[in-house]
Amino acid sequence: MSYQDIYSASLTDPETFWMDAAKAISWDRTPSRALSDLGDDLYEWFADGMVNGCYNAVDRHVENGRGDQLAIIHDSPITGTKSSLSFAQLQDKVARLAGALVANGVTKGDRVIIYMPMVPEALEAMLACARIGAVHSVVFGGFAASELAVRIDDCAPKAVLAASCGLEPGRVVEYKPLLDGAIDLAAHKPDVCLILQRPQASATMIPGRDLDWQSETAKAAPAACVPVEGNHPAYILYTSGTTGAPKGVVRHTGGHLVALNWTMKNIYNVDPGDVFWAASDVGWVVGHSYICYGPLVHGNTTIVFEGKPVGTPDAGTFWRVISEHNVRSFFTAPTAIRAVKREDPKGLEKAKYDISCLRTLYLAGERADPDTIHWAQDLLNIPVIDHWWQTETGYSIAANPMGLDPLPVKVGSPSVAMPGYDIKILDDAGHALPPDTLGAIAIKLPLPPGTLPTLWNAPERFRKSYLQTFPGYYETGDAGMIDKDGYLYIMARTDDVINVAGHRLSTGAMEEVLANHPDVAECAVIGVSDALKGQAPVGFVCLTKGVNRPHADITAECVKLIREKIGPVAAFKLAVVVDRLPKTRSGKILRATMVKIADGASFKMPATIDDPAILDEIRGALQTLGFAKSG
Ligand code: COA
Ligand code: AMP
């Protein structure tokens, strides 16, 4: 069937389409129907099926003769080690870890926070939770203790699974002091922390709460898979919103298994047994869907890579891993390719490796700029596929279905809507716009299986953030257009979210931190264009009356504060003191205009601006930081 036929079928008869896709999943009780309409714009998928995520990702492959196939390859250029686990070995490890959780009182529905670097145990932790119906919430290692504390208080975990450290080039990031600090800060206290001691840092254990991962799993009885309802939460993944409080995206079990499994062949064009590599981190949605669940459920070998695109040890690392492990499909963020291109513009490193195994490169997480796509296409001589998705959806909303019916690539577009996504471009009043017209990107409800049904502990926020602006639609928060051939173009965010090195960050959250500096009366954070990371945050602070300390001291403190409160991942390095911020007459800060000035882009003077002269001061401040070069 052609893409067009499949896409049309998914919209005209979603019930048949998704019930058919669900046949690829092993159910303990087959769902009687795909979609449940709960009313009030709320939907669930496969609600009355019974299923287990771990069984589908691990045990069934052992039962079906794939026990000796590699499930996980760990490649860590940072430690100079490589290892692998077959599906049978993974089953044993996961069952024991699940047993250790059970022995410590964790049962179906309990939350478990996972705070782990890129080691196979991170996947084992996720799968062990899935095995017993516990709901995991993975927290990215680059977040500070206070961000971890916010998540602990929101999801109230019974247990935490953590490693003693993560490894960044040239730096050991000790996780245990961060975890201890977070638990001190949080009102909720987990009963137990299972700590994986890594040789690079030995964690100090707190008696009565902390237990050693290895000894607990060694003595644990293997736990069996617990079937859960199709609408049982598999996990909560926090992502940035407009305010400092992160949104807990909920993922239901049944829909996510069905949808991810569908994408592995149809979008990523891999067959069971093939090696699939997503060079991301388990802390992000890409890591959940395409380092852990997607490939394993589909019977693929997945790679857990502990390294960076450059500097570990060089810009040839990606090509080495692809060549050594026979990678068929490779997925990373455009920023990673830009990093390789900057270090090795002629692609000399690639010539050292035979990467003829690689069929397609997939990019997502931020806008893929045409220069990067062309460079990668010329170097690799394979299709380079941009695809667009969000933490909320769990997999791509728009992509090029390479395993189904590859469509011509239009550079600058993540191609076309995937099954079940009825994408519309709307004006402010919610009217559909014609082709090639810029507007808000919205998706007609219901969203397909595997997408978020709600936010953890925050049904009203879910409604307000996603359902309220355009009744009957999911508001993506992205703006863009669709051309006459149905190709989508993602142009900008419509909210305060910025994208730094493929990481989604909230400028609102950064402003909340800066506003807590005792000398700061008012502030604004904007995302300016950055050649490597796509965007970089820049802070503007107005000082409290009477403060006359050196500005350089205050801005250095601002940078330190954001690193301490949000974490190094915010990559917040630049702040500047200004007298005033540009505002509308009603007091709204004109951040979008500030971004235009920073990027040297032309802009229309906002009609409602209170005092246009302030823009000159902003331009001057930006020029001292090396921005606003023209325009
Ligand atoms: N634990 C602790 N700290 C971390 C971390 C982690 N897991 N990940 C990143 N950090 C730190 C970095 O060490 C850096 O610290 P520094 O300010 O002391 O240098 C800071 O957070 C910013 O990290 P990042 O923005 O990633 O910059 P970088 O200079 O380390 O690397 C790239 C730049 C482009 C190589 C890197 O960002 C990259 O590979 N990006 C790909 C992103 C990706 O895969 N995104 C997922 C969506 S597909
Ligand atoms: P995250 O939730 O971290 O995956 O970030 C989702 C956001 O990243 C989207 O809403 C977009 O703003 C941006 N994004 C992701 N993929 C793409 C893409 N292919 N092109 C443009 N923007 C993208």
Question: Short summary of the structure?
Answer:
With 631 residues, this protein is α/β, with parallel strands linked by helices.
> Strand arrangement, largest sheet?
6-5-18-17-19-20-21
Q: Main beta sheet, described?
A: 7 strands, mixed
Rg, nearest Å: 24 Å
Task: List all distinct small molecules, including ions and cofactors, that are bound in this structure.
Answer: coenzyme A, adenosine monophosphate
Low-confidence stretches: none
Which CATH first-tier class of the domain at 67-226 would you pick? Alpha Beta
* Molecular shape: globular
Strand portion, in percent? 15-25%
Q: Helical segment tally?
A: 18
Q: Please give the share of residues in helix.
A: 25-40%
How confident overall, as mean pLDDT?
A: 97
CATH hierarchy: architecture of the domain at 67-226: 3-Layer(aba) Sandwich
The end-to-end distance, rounded to whole angstroms, is 50 Å
Number of DSSP-assigned strands: 32
- Helix/sheet category: alpha/beta
CATH topology of the domain at 67-226: Rossmann fold
Architecture overview:
- Helix 12 (334-343) crosses helix 13.
- The model has no long low-confidence stretch (mean pLDDT 97).
- The protein is built from 18 helices and 32 strands.
- The protein is α/β, with parallel strands linked by helices.
- 32% of the residues lie in helices and 25% in strands.
- The strands form 10 sheets. Strands 6-5-18-17-19-20-21 form a 7-stranded mixed beta sheet, with helices on both faces. It has a 5-stranded parallel beta sheet with strand order 8-7-9-12-13, with helices on both faces. Strands 24-25-26-27 form a 4-stranded antiparallel beta sheet.
- The radius of gyration is 24 Å and the shape is globular.
- Among the domains are: 67-226, Rossmann fold; 501-624, GMP Synthetase, Chain A, domain 3 (2-Layer Sandwich).
